[in-house]
Amino acid sequence: MSTWSTKNYRVESADTSVHFQECISNAYARNVEYFEKDIPFFSIVVEEPPVTAENANSWLIGTPGYGSSPLTVKGPRFLEKTRKYILKDFENLVTHEMCHRFQLAHFDFTTPCWLYEGMAGHVGEQTPADRYWWVLERGINELAELHRPAQFYALGDYIGAFSIAYVLHTLSDKKTIMKFMSQSTRADDFEESSKTFENVFSFSIDSLCERWLSYLESSRPERSKT
Ligand SMILES: [Zn+2]
């Protein structure tokens, strides 16, 4: 393992190539561009575990950490072998995990989970917008079911969250979304959160859901319609 630092973060990694270092710095820069702020200095640990039957398909390939606990992420070699990730996919994953640190540092925001995860997928550009219609094929989870972290992670509905956050960004703007984050608390239940949502955005969560479903329908290719 080698270690290097910038003024914003310290990285522990086996890979120190220029391309790899660029991925990390791009991921940080993409979040600064979105949030228009830095976060306190933090550590990143890039792990390259051997590929085993047990870990190959694990969904847990990154964690944001919190405060002095490091952000951890599986490295490009592991991700290439197990998921056919190219380096850009690795950069997007790091961007996603860093986004959570920005959400936590500036807003202490984890709930509603559909926006916590959805925003990280949006900033991380992890699924192209024209593929979100796949959510319809698989089946829709209600937003109420994606509100609490425990229920969200049991369902693991990342693509649902990414697609809703995408639609929210087309209906509103970053400043309003950040205002909502600053007014949300982890204790909010779905009903409380829906009231805050409507106050901040001037439209309801129900109308967000309607726009979300109609976006998914309209972006669905003809051939997949039955
Ligand atoms: Zn996440």
C-alpha termini separation = 53 Å
Taken together, the total number of domains comes to 2
Specify Rg, calculated over alpha carbons. Answer: 18 Å
Listed once per kind, the bound small molecules are: zinc ion
| Average pLDDT level | 94
Order of helices and strands: EEHEHEEHHHHHHHHH
Strand content: 5-15%
Strand order of the largest sheet: 1-2-3-5-4
Which percent range fits the helix content?
55-70%
Runs in which pLDDT lies below 50 for 5 or more consecutive residues are none
What structural class should be given to the helix and strand makeup? alpha/beta
Alpha plus pi helix count: 11
Annotation, overall tally of beta strands: 5
* Basic shape: globular
Largest sheet: 5 strands, mixed
Report on the architecture of this protein.
With 226 residues, this protein is α/β, with parallel strands linked by helices. It has two domains: 107 residues, Zincin-like; 119 residues, no CATH class. Helix content is 55%, strand content 9%. The chain is built from eleven helices and five strands. Strands 1-2-3-5-4 form a five-stranded mixed β-sheet. α5 crosses α8 and α9 runs antiparallel to α10. The longest helix is centred in the middle third of the chain and has 21 residues. The chain is globular. Bound molecules: zinc ion (ZN).
Chart the SSEs and their pairings.
Blueprint: E1 2-5, E2 9-13, H1 18-35, E3 42-47, H2 53-56, E4 62-63, E5 71-74, H3 76-83, H4 87-107, H5 113-123, H6 134-138, H7 149-155, H8 158-171, H9 174-183, H10 190-201, H11 205-219
Parallel strand pairs: 2-3, 3-5
Antiparallel strand pairs: 1-2, 4-5
Helix pairs in contact: 1-4, 4-5, 5-8, 8-11, 9-10
The structure holds zinc ion.
Zinc ion (ZN) binds at residues 96, 100, 117, 120.
